[in-house]
Amino acid sequence: MFVEFVLGVVAVLLFYIYAYSPFDYWKKRGVTQVPVELPVVGNFVRGLSEPAAVRLKRNYDNYPDERYVGTYDVRTPVLLIRDPDLVESFLIKDFSHFYNRGNPSNPETKLGKHLLNLKDERWKGLRNKLTPTFTTGKLKGMHSQLVECGENLIRSMKKLEDGRPFEIRDVVSRFTMDVIASCAFGLNLDTINDSESPFRKIGLTSFTPSLFTQVVLKLPQELRTLLKRLNIGSTPPQMLDYFIGAVDETIAHRAQNKMVRPDFLHLMNELYQKDKESIEKKQLDPKDPHVFDHSTLVSNAFVFFLAGFETTATTISYAMYELAMNDDVQEEVFKEVSSVLRKHGGTPTFDACQEMELLERVISETLRKYPPAVSVDRKASHEYTVPGSNLTLPAGSNILVPIYALHHDPQYFPDPEKFLPERFDESKTAIRKGTYLPFGGGPRICIGARFARLEAKVGLAMIVNNFQLVRSEKTLSPLKFAKLAVTLVPEGGVWVAVRPRNKTA
């Protein structure tokens, strides 16, 4: 009996240690920390009941006198950075210490060899190889395709001129998907008119908010890898196979017909063929982790496809919503756009877009209020002492920059809930460094940021020039965000209506 009692006490003690021991990590280091609500899982359960942006903003707002705050991602200690100067240090000045993202990843899984997953020198090598895709010259070369997709969008929206409410993201995401398919892969999908396109289904499935996705993101790397090997994921394996097949067929078709297009797929295929030839000549070891193989090609194609269509569609949608809610801003944008287009033959050419300064500020303010990513994380590769403190972070420590919270801090952006494009008029105000990070910051800033801005500008210019955006009975104010979404997804969508633009008025 005594033995059973002792074993019971030991079991309870071990469970107590397991349940609570991780959650005094920051206290032991003299760091103020967010209260932990539950043993074992910390604040994970509460995190499922509210959008990540709201949770992080609350943790940020509750400690106005702290430069950083200790938090936990389930049981993993994470340092939440509040001080813009520290943001600059972590993301830029001391980037050599925080080279990698904090997400656990395994690039050896199916479609896993992409920029978001790779670390250290493997990431750096791939980044350098892919960067030429987004030079000014390459953007100019893709511009006519942007305009062509925009014209298809306008023709589709003409059917909505009767004033009926419509969900913006449903319409705009078809435009952005067609843009990515055309500019990146040379595919003419026409999802604007084909709602049953397999590519559209892949995109929508990958970004549908779900409890499954949230839970999987919190699992240890070993379990996440096991799920992928068992073909258990948010995107069904048959959809992934369809995407890979479509990419391979496009490459084969181009080779057979000696077609050359200056797009993302062409650049990646050149890299693939170059390394393949080097391997055949015994000049390169096929096991070299820096080899640009078929898996690297399709992995980056898939991520670029998903990120390119979803984040830009969301940005355009929020901008349309804000213009509908702010008539004075919309009219000023219309005046600018129509004036510039008249100078350029009625077409939003590359040079015309550079002249639309107010529209650029509208996009910047939209990205402030609704950043594509609500936060960005990094993991310490070396021991690091936080500047201006006695806190030393061991290698492997995780830090989190709360982008949404910084963008909504009245100390840096007065009246943060108001839509004020003039904040980004550089002749009047200067944005403090470390407070505005819509695409992240430092060397790991989003590689497609310039392309995304150009795409948004072309789409918005054509929409505003043809339609007046107005509120409808379905338009919500303020908007609410989906609880289980990875990005800043509006709950129930974004609804407006349009009227034909009276250009003679």
TrEMBL record:
Keyword Protein transport assigned: no
Membrane topology annotation: Peripheral membrane protein
Keywords in alphabetical order: Endoplasmic reticulum, Heme, Iron, Membrane, Metal-binding, Microsome, Monooxygenase, Oxidoreductase
Amino-acid biosynthesis as UniProt keyword: no
Subcellular location: Endoplasmic reticulum membrane; Microsome membrane
Cofactor: heme
Sequence similarity: Belongs to the cytochrome P450 family.
Name of the protein: Cytochrome P450
Species assigned in the record: Nesidiocoris tenuis
